[in-house]
Write a structure and sequence with these properties.
767 residues, Rossmann fold, eight-stranded mixed beta sheet, five-stranded antiparallel beta sheet, 16% helix
């Protein structure tokens, strides 16, 4: 590691610091008031505004067909270019002439466009032409003369068969097919009833709110076989399932009457959740069979997913057991609906469904699957020839995901972390192995985080390599040995550095157990002075499916932590025990224990950092978080009030029984027990001592606003002082609200810095 703490801090010194509960608070060295200029600097660093200050932070190659050629979007300070790369020829050039295309639109179609921002979608790159969608039309550009032909956008309706002949749709709760050539209809089911219809997913109300779906009863989900002769689909029984409601108080239409959105939503611990049965219809024989599966609990929006083998004879489903002690891969025979368990992955406590990886190979019937082996997540392969599951990787490191499967040469390219000694275990590295699990070959040797994308042939890959304090360098590399073959881009951050911007500093500390290494990042203001004292703010998120600390340069400069630090704080990100991408033992700290996950590790890390950096004032610590981090924020304010003094909790799931079953039951288990009460913020709200600000969007489809309102009720009952904001028209993500951002600024300035914010300041986001 580049910035480990000295050995003394890794043992006795940090323990004595953590136990020093009686330390007297020291006076803050802060201004009495902040100015609009201070807020200008901070708001310029919000992710919504910082794009023009730093760009080309990564590129995503779009491979052309099955070739090694690709195109990508190259960001500029204003707008972007489209670039073309042919690795075999060593060519890198513009994909087309922007000015000529602009002129073609204006001269031949009387359409004015900005040459720096075309906004092409569904771009198809051919040898002599480009096809794309733009401004509601489909266009074909002939590159020889820049002639443009306009047509309607090709239909991409859901439920269309691969051969384009059939369209699935629902009518009166039953499934029908329409022959797109003749218009004739074929009825597939006949017994659908209200609340128990066919091919009807659970609708996310966000799709109703934003107008993507006008009538949920018309939304149809089916899974076609590759030969277009069979369909797999489900029937969800919603008749006894509970519903929630969102109320849009201020409709954009200007109506004084609010809009109401009712939706089915399974809460953790509920017995009466939606359940699905599944079926296969044969279009040629007009037969319908029910899959031999136990009823499938549907714990969030959508429904079960089926993946067909290439021969169209078998479809497979990955099915977690409720309570997440097992995940099974089940194959279903398309003729009779019989089922067979291919992989039965079960644990005494839990499987990690959120980080689970499944890669089916339709052509061969193989399945690549992640599973805990000797306490670490690793890659295994199901072999249809032997009906056996064989480990591909092993060791005290973390397999992350497959980047490419080589059909012909048997190669497997995968990303992992923690395999290279002495490096941050969260850094991504690319490796190559084979189906027999030979010793992996490292293809990205630099001690950096590597975001990679491999060509269809495996001959080349694009590597966005960086770390939080090393700007991105994007290169083209050999898929054989990782050799760098071509420089593509480098991060453009001169404007950001011109502001005095301080890059985040990675750190290593020791958890509260005195032995486990943990990692994080420190953000400082541009006018940082090590001779001054700074309040510390913990941007917290201990959701066990996630890692909070941004490892890449691109992600590290797209965080609110930069903006909040700019106000005159030190902001930290910390990943303590109970979070993801480490060993199972590290993750297991969260199991049935969300109310204590890693919090003492956060305190231990902050106290260690304050010993190393005396300008960090561990007597004036604030905290903020969103979603699970909103829960964390309120939780530490209630359970660690002598350490965390000021908190801003947004969109929090404050009781795990008032939130989605799919997430909470993964970590809290099923059925619900007394630990749900113990870990509920509602049961400890009366312990509040510091300054707490709660916020929620009224149209939050992910964590219903009732979660925060129920906490508000408990705080009122306990006669506690706090601030509360409901944001009309907003969903789960409040960071997109300039008003909420300003209120969060103000709250920390007033209560943690103990200074006066500028009156009437208005944060504005760049267009």
């Amino acid at each position: 590691m580049k910035t480990p703490l000295i050995a003394a801090l890794l043992a006795s010194a940090f323990l004595s610091a953590c136990l020093d509960e009686q330390k007297t608070s020291t006076p803050l060295e802060v201004p009495t008031a902040l100015t609009s200029a201070d807020y200008d600097r901070a708001s310029a660093l919000l992710p919504q505004n910082s794009r023009k200050l730093a760009y080309r932070l990564s590129i995503r190659p779009n491979w052309i067909g099955e070739s090694d050629r690709f195109w990508y979007i190259r960001e500029q300070a204003k707008g972007y270019d489209y670039m073309f790369v042919d690795p075999a020829e060593g060519v890198r050039r513009s994909l087309f002439d922007h000015e000529r295309l602009k002129q073609a639109f204006e001269d031949r179609h009387d359409i004015e466009v900005d040459a720096s921002e075309f906004g092409l979608s569904a771009l198809d790159v051919q040898d002599d032409a480009l096809e794309f969608n733009m401004q509601g039309s489909h266009w074909r550009l002939t590159l020889a003369d820049y002639s443009l032909v306009k047509s309607d956008i090709p239909s991409t309706e859901r439920g269309t068969s691969p051969d384009g002949k059939w369209q699935a749709f629902r009518k009166e709760e039953n499934l029908f097919l329409r022959n797109l050539e003749t218009g004739d209809e074929k009825q597939i089911t006949t017994d659908g009833i209200e609340g128990f219809g066919y091919a009807a997913p659970l609708i996310n109300p966000r799709n109703l709110i934003n107008g993507r779906i006008s009538n949920p009863e018309e939304f149809t989900t089916v899974y076609w076989s590759p030969d277009s002769k069979k369909i797999a689909f489900y029937r969800i029984d919603k008749r006894e399932a509970g519903k929630l409601t969102l109320v849009e108080s201020s409709p954009k239409s200007g109506s004084t009457r609010p809009n109401q959105y009712d939706y089915v939503y399974a809460l953790s611990g509920e017995e009466k959740v939606p359940f699905a049965d599944a079926y296969i219809a044969n279009i040629e024989t007009d037969t319908l069979v029910k899959m031999a599966l136990d009823p499938i609990p549907v714990l969030y929006y959508g429904g079960p997913y089926f993946n067909w083998n290439a021969d169209s004879e078998t479809t497979v489903i990955r099915q977690p057991e409720r309570g997440y002690k097992a995940i099974r891969l089940i194959a279903i025979d398309a003729d009779d609906g019989s089922s067979k368990v291919l992989i039965d992955d079960n644990q005494d406590d839990f499987v990690d469904y959120y980080a689970h990886q499944w890669n089916p190979v339709e052509e061969t019937g193989e399945h690549y699957w992640s599973s805990f082996i000797d306490g670490w997540q690793h890659l295994v392969r199901y072999d249809p020839g032997t009906d056996k599951v064989k480990p591909i990787t092993r060791g005290n490191w973390r397999y992350r995901y497959i980047a490419r499967l080589g059909e012909e040469d048997g190669s497997i390219y995968f990303v992992a972390g923690g395999k290279e000694a002495g490096r941050d275990p969260y850094y991504r590295h690319l490796y190559r192995t084979d189906r027999d699990g030979s010793e992996p070959v490292l293809l990205t040797p630099e001690a950096l985080d590597h975001g990679v994308d491999i060509s269809p042939t495996g001959t080349y890959f694009v590597d966005n390599m960086s770390e939080m304090n090393v700007p991105t360098r994007t290169v083209l590399r050999s898929g054989v040995d990782g050799a760098i073959l071509m420089e593509l881009e480098t991060a453009q951050a001169d404007a950001l550095f011109a502001t005095g911007f301080q890059m985040a500093e990675p750190f290593e500390a020791v958890a509260a157990d005195g032995k486990t290494p943990i990692y994080g990042a420190i953000y400082r203001p541009s006018n940082f002075d090590p001779n001054k004292s700074y309040p510390v703010i913990d941007n917290i998120y201990t959701g066990p499916h996630y890692v909070m600390t941004r490892k890449s340069f691109g992600r590290s400069v797209r965080t609110e932590a930069m903006a909040i630090a700019e106000l005159g704080f030190i902001v930290v990100h910390i990943d303590g025990r109970g979070t993801n991408q480490r060993s199972k033992a590290f993750l297991a700290e969260a199991y049935k224990n969300l109310g204590q996950t890693g919090y003492k590790d956060h305190e231990a890390a902050i106290r260690q950092l304050a010993e190393k950096y005396p300008y960090m004032d561990a007597d004036h610590v604030g905290v903020y978080g969103f979603s699970a981090g909103g829960y964390d924020t309120a939780r530490v304010m209630f359970t660690m009030p002598d350490f965390y003094k000021v908190g801003v909790a947004a969109s929090g799931n404050h009781d795990h029984r008032s939130d989605k079953a799919v997430w909470n039951e993964q970590w809290m288990g099923f059925p619900a027990g007394s630990h749900y009460d113990r870990d509920s913020n509602l049961t400890v709200a009366g312990n509040l001592k510091g300054k707490l600000f709660l916020a929620h969007g009224e149209l939050d489809e992910n964590v219903n606003p009732m979660a925060t309102l129920q906490l508000v009720d408990k705080l009122i009952a306990a006669n506690k002082d706090f601030e509360f904001l409901i944001v009309p028209g907003y969903g789960h993500f409040l960071d997109d609200s300039p008003y909420f951002q300003r209120r969060r600024f103000d709250f920390f300035v007033k209560h943690l810095m103990q200074a006066k914010p500028p009156e009437g300041y208005e944060i504005k986001f760049e267009d």
